[in-house]
Amino acid sequence: MGEVFGVNALLALSRGIDRVNLMIGRWVSWLVLLAVLISAGNAVIRKLFNSSSNAWLEVQWYLFGAIVLLGAAAALYRNEHVRVDLIYGAVSDRARLWIDLFGILFLLLPFALYAVWVTWPVFVQSWRINEHSSNAGGLVRWPAKLILPVGFAMLSLQGLSELVKRIAALRGLIALETKYSKPLQ
Fold first, then answer.
1. 11-25: pLDDT as tens digits
2. Residue 56 vs residue 23, higher pLDDT
3. Cα–Cα dist 56/44, whole Å
4. pLDDT-based confidence at 185, cuts 50/70/90?
5. Distance CA 183, CA 125 (A)
6. How far apart are CA 63 and CA 143, in angstroms?
7. pLDDT tier for residue 116 given thresholds of 50, 70 and 90
8. Rounded distance, CA 45 to CA 117, Å?
9. What 3-state DSSP class applies to 113?
10. Contact 67, 32 (CB under 8 A)
11. What is the dihedral of CA 103, 105, 111, 115, to 10 degrees?
12. Which DSSP helix (H) or strand (E) runs through 50?
């Protein structure tokens, strides 16, 4: 009884992590449109008025960083992440669950947690000194540096959520889709 309660609590935590990361993923998807509009607007202003600002260029790469880092957890949830498919597509669903479990435990989580550990002090130092770009008209840097540990933390949480689901699926407690669309080549 206690074990089932524990698994149910972990699955509830997993669903909560999934909801948060999907909400962030939906929000971040709008940043793509914003980045395109800023890029197009900057190009038009540069061509029509022979004027530009480094701030507009920098905000584009800030947005790109946010899109990639904050959208990674939602991509993992949707099983739309990059993978090297040497054997994954040719094995059973159960074998895929084991491959995922191994990858999450020994590759994803150690890397993502290490990235949080390494990038947090970089952000703190940047924030402490209120670091600015060295480019004329450049932006403050700490918001872009904050995206690094936050993005990797969200990816770590999603990795934990996926780990819980894989273990529950291996124990027969939930059904989990392991198939994915192979990229066209």
1. 999 999 999 999 999
2. 23
3. 12
4. low
5. 40
6. 11
7. very high
8. 41
9. helix
10. yes
11. 140
12. none
